[in-house]
């Protein structure tokens, strides 16, 4: 798993009826983009250090946002 600052980390629910958790990666601990990540969780506005498990995946930040910030 590789990520960049601004990507979303999505953790799927392990139990039926529970919502998935979505957060924004705000800090990388490794230069190559591998875990762990510091994530700001959107549902609680809290930051935590995360070692993602098999129920997690990274969604790259939107291309439109990258183009806007690069100009």
TrEMBL record:
The lineage of its organism: Bacteria, Bacillati, Actinomycetota, Actinomycetes, Streptosporangiales. Residues 1-71 form the BAH domain. Gene3D superfamilies: Domain of unknown function DUF1918. It comes from the Bacteria. GO terms for molecular function: chromatin binding. Signal peptide: none annotated. It comes from Streptosporangium subroseum. It holds the Pfam family DUF1918. This is BAH domain-containing protein.
């Amino acid at each position: 798993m590789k990520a960049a600052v601004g990507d979303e980390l999505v953790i799927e629910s392990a139990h039926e009826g529970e919502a998935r958790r979505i957060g924004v990666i705000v800090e990388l601990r490794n230069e190559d983009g591998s875990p762990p990540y510091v994530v700001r969780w959107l549902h609680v506005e809290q930051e935590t250090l995360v070692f993602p498990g098999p129920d997690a995946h990274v969604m790259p930040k939107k291309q439109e946002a990258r183009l806007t910030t690069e100009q």
